[in-house]
Structures are given as structure tokens and as C-alpha cells.
Amino acid sequence: MISVDSLLYGIALAGVAVQASSGVLEAGRRPFDLFGMVVVALAAALGGGTLRDVMLDRKVFWIADQSYLTAAVLAGLATFALVRIRALPPKLFLLPDAVGLALFTVSGTQAALAMGAPWLVASLMGVITGVFGGILRDVLCNQIPLVFVGQLYATASWAGALLLVGLSLWGGVSPGWAALAGGSLVLTIRLCALAFDWRLPVFAVRS
Amino acid sequence: MISVDSLLYGIALAGVAVQASSGVLEAGRRPFDLFGMVVVALAAALGGGTLRDVMLDRKVFWIADQSYLTAAVLAGLATFALVRIRALPPKLFLLPDAVGLALFTVSGTQAALAMGAPWLVASLMGVITGVFGGILRDVLCNQIPLVFVGQLYATASWAGALLLVGLSLWGGVSPGWAALAGGSLVLTIRLCALAFDWRLPVFAVRS
Amino acid sequence: MISVDSLLYGIALAGVAVQASSGVLEAGRRPFDLFGMVVVALAAALGGGTLRDVMLDRKVFWIADQSYLTAAVLAGLATFALVRIRALPPKLFLLPDAVGLALFTVSGTQAALAMGAPWLVASLMGVITGVFGGILRDVLCNQIPLVFVGQLYATASWAGALLLVGLSLWGGVSPGWAALAGGSLVLTIRLCALAFDWRLPVFAVRS
Question: Which of B32, B50, B69 is the closest to A148 by Cβ?
């Protein structure tokens, strides 16, 4: 039991680190200085969970446990150093980013369920935890959030969150298995979307 | 007494739905996918009330009562479907939007007064509840918030909030009548501003 | 003892007023109306402290004490009036702005320490309090946050916050002297950065 918790905690730290790296890479397209990098990295890594905790009136996770903040800062600085040495292939980050999305979705959904939130709220909280950091990153860089225009991302998150909620509330499945099923669905849809370029229909009133 | 509460509740749901529609229409000018639409719709519909509740340390209204979230999602999807069929006249939304502004202003102001907030804070909380959703919608769409540049909108909200606060704190008027007076003032100013193109002076340091 | 508290309170109000002025000056480059000015002024003046209080689950400072809100609104309106009469030299605001940065940093760091936050979290909370208002101001004006691209600003804040935390947690220094030392370091670094054009290295992956 303890080893499963340790594993989940390790994956959570890795998810935070990967999102921090994505923030540095995105900010690197702009003439930001080192501090700007760090801010965008922290916003990308911690923004979703912070919004979730503030809205659910829980203690903010990175204030309660400093490890998340340390992981985000170190990952941001390491990415900054690495990219000055040599260009990284952007696709390098897609797999761990998908793992991070799955994990953030699961943790957000479960936190809301634990507080007795109804099904639609709980699933939305999972999506917010998963994608808000990336939206914040792009708003700070003054561009349209990537999550609104790319391959399936939030949709993958929502599908997995709904599965988790359904299994927990009506399926009588234990939290651990529900989390595993929901997280796996997020990961599968996201990876398929990347592999086969799955997208939602684009909507435009005016050209 | 119950019927008045039911009426207010129904108008609140309608206000949320209308703001969600405005989010979809605004996002539709950008190459957003279906999920992007939904996020902007939710931000426009729920953003103001969420900020109010978080700052007042109340339970977030759409987490406590899922109906608001359902109304926003359904209205967003319906607008999405409708606009793909035929273009809607933008002015169609101006009347219910004005009703929504009046109602959000009243609910925000009263929530702050109920917590013992002083008069300036209470009135500002009403304005934030009324207009923050629209600001968030425009920031997500990467453009200057419309509320800063159009006909009187926040000014209408502030005037009504101040009237409500004044009647409640110093006029000895009951909450129901104060709400009615404040809300009516918001609605009247906003509709007159639209009809007669009332605007605040524009300010520019540099051309 | 009382006179020191009064002095700090006065400086805090002055810091809020100066940040409100900076918001009006920034918004004045855009075709905003009077209300847009006021919103940007309030966001610049109150944004950092609000985010700090919400994340630490404290009562929001300007809701608890209306004086801050009054100071921000009055300073914003006064700046609006002044600039319509004659152009102000932008450098006029740099000295009081640096004082405000120092004070916001100290107050944010001390609030986090008082709640038992660990060192890295406490110092970051000081930085957030100091710089978030300016970031919000620039996002609302739809441009890249100045704090990410100019002379040392957040770095000055972070250095002072770390000194304050170090002296308090490990130096056995009383809160008053630690605050004085930390605040002075922020002010010194910021003024030197302006005088000698100190900047962090800029990072760009792609040209």
C-alpha cells in the first residue's frame, strides 16, 4: 500500500517537473529573462492544482508540501540550462506531458469527489487541474491557449475524469482501480490523438 | 416568499446561460475547437461569481449547486449548434445580457453586505461579480476586454450597486426592495447606454 | 512601537497608491475608458496581495480594511486627472514604485512565515505579493508583462525575501530587523538596477 502511494507521489512530482519544462520551452520563444522563465514555469506546473485547491477551499498543495515547488524550480532551471547548450526536440516532452495530464486529472477529480462534489463538478475539477496550467502559461506569453486549438487534450482529460466519476459513484469500484482506469483512458486518448492527429471540429462564426 | 426566491433563482440561471452564450459567440471569432468554446463559455458565465466567492471565502456557488454548471454547458453547446446552422444577430443577446448584469451585480453586492463588508468593498464586489466573467472571456481570446472600451457597462453595475448599498446601510430599506431598486437602476442605465450610445470619456496619454 | 506600525501602515497605503498610478499610466496607452482605467489601477494595486491572501486562506486585506481600496481609487482618479492636464515624466514613479515593491515583498513574506510556511514557499509568496499586480496590469492591457523583460525587478524582490527568511528562520533576528534588512536589500538592488541597467540574461530558443 505504501509503495503505491510512493509511486503516485513520485509520478505527481514528475508531472509538475514536466509541466515546468513546458513553460520554459514556451517562454523561450519570447524575449523573457531568467525570472520570466521561472514564473511561466511555475504557472504552468502549479496553476491547475492551485486553482483547484482555492476553489475547493483546501490548503494549496505546494504550500503544504514544498517538494512540488522545489521540483518545478529545479526542472525549470535545468531546462533553461539544457536549451542554452543544445536545441531539444519538442516531441521529447509529449510522452511525460501526457502522463502528467493523466495524473493531474485523476488527482483533481478525486479531490473533488472526496469533498462530496456532484459528478459534473468533480469531472470538471479534474479537467481544470489538468489543463489550467497550460492555459495560464499561454496567456502569460500573450498568445491563444494551445489547448484550445491543438489535438485532443482537454477532451482526453474530460473523458477520463467522467470514467473515474462513473466508476466511483455508480460502479462501486474502489478509488484505486477507478483512478487507474480513468488515468489510463486519459493517457490512451491523448497518445492516440497525437499519433493520428485527432482533433475536435473547429468552429468559426466569421472567417 | 418562496415564489420570489424561485423567480430570482430562475433569473440567475438564465443570466449564467446568457453569459455562456456570449462566451461561445466571442470565441467563435477565433480558430478554437469545441472544447475551447466550452472553456470560454464557462469562464464568461462563472468567472465573476467564482472570484467573488473565493475572495469572500464562501463556498463557490457552482460547486455548491451543480445547476449553474449544467445551465452554462447546455447554453454553450446550444449556441455552438445554433451558430453552425445560421448566423445569429449579435443584438439578440443584449437584453438578456443586461438582465444578467443586473442580477449578478445584486447577488454579488448582497453577498458582500451579508458578510459585513464596508460600503465601498460591497459595491465593488457587485461590479466584480457582474463584469469579471466578460473580462476573463476576452483575455482568454487574447484581446482587450470589451468592458473597458464599449458603452456604459461596469458603470451601470457600479451605480446600481451603490444604490443598493446606500438603501440597505443608511436607508433602512429591506433587502428585497433594495435589491429591486439597485437591479432596476443597472438595467435602466445599461439599456439607455445601448440605445443612446452613452460612453465614458476615453483617456489616452499617448496617441 | 505604535509609531513604527503607523509608519509601516502609511507606507503600505502609499505603495498601493503608487501601483494604482502605474496602472492608470499603463492603461492610458490603450483606448480604455475611465472605468477601464480604474479596473487596471485596482488590479495593479491590489492583485498581488489578493492572490497571496487567497492562497494562504487569509481574509483578503482590502476587504478587511477599506482604506487600501480608497487609496487605490483616489490615486487612480488623481493620476487620470493629472495626466489629462499635463504629461508626467514616467521616471517620477520609479522611486515610490521601488519602495512599494520592497514593502509588498516584506509583507507577503512575513504573512507566509507567520502561517508556518517553509522557506522557499515563504520567499515566493513575498515575490508574488510584490510583482503579481504588475503582471495582471500588463495581461489586462494585452501585452507581455514588463516584469519579464525589464531591469531586475522580481530578482530584487526574491533576494530581499530570501534574506528576510534566512534572518528570521536561522539567524534568530527579530521580525522587525529582519523586515528592515530584507526591505532595504530589495530597494537597493532595484535602484542600482535602474541606475546601472542591470538585467538578467535573456533566453531565446528561437530567434
Answer: B32
CA distance A18 to A94: 9
**Could you say which residues of chain A have pLDDT below 70?**
1-5, 7-8, 88, 90, 203-207
Residues of A within 8 A of B84 (CB-CB) are: 203
Contacts of residue C56 in chain A, CB cutoff 8 Å?
63
In order, the DSSP letters of A60-127 are PHHHH-THHHHHHHHHHHHHHHHHHHSPPPGGGGHHHHHHHHHHHHHHHHHHHHHTT--HHHHHHHHH
The strand pairing partners of C33, in sequence order, are B202
> What average pLDDT score do residues B63-80 get?
89
* C205/C38: higher pLDDT: C38
Question: Contact A202/A114 with Cβ under 8 angstroms?
Answer: no
Please indicate whether, in this complex, the C-beta atoms of A140 and C142 are within 8 angstroms of each other. Answer: no
Establish if C54 touches chain A: CB-CB under 8 angstroms. Answer: yes
HEC profile of C162-178:
HHHHHHHHCCCCCHHHH
Whether C151 and C201 have beta carbons less than 8 Å apart is answered as: no
Cα(B147)–Cα(C27) distance, integer angstroms: 13
Q: Write out pLDDT tens, residues C69-118.
A: 999 999 988 888 887 777 767 677 777 778 888 988 998 898 888 888 88
Cβ-based contacts of C200 with chain A (< 8 Å): 33-35
ipTM over 0.90: no
Contact residues for B115 (Cβ-Cβ < 8 A; gap 6+): B56, B58
DSSP letters, C39-91, are: HHHHHHHHHHHHHHHHHHTPPPHHHH-THHHHHHHHHHHHHHHHHHHSPPPGG
The distance from CA A85 to its chain's CA centroid, rounded to whole angstroms, is 27
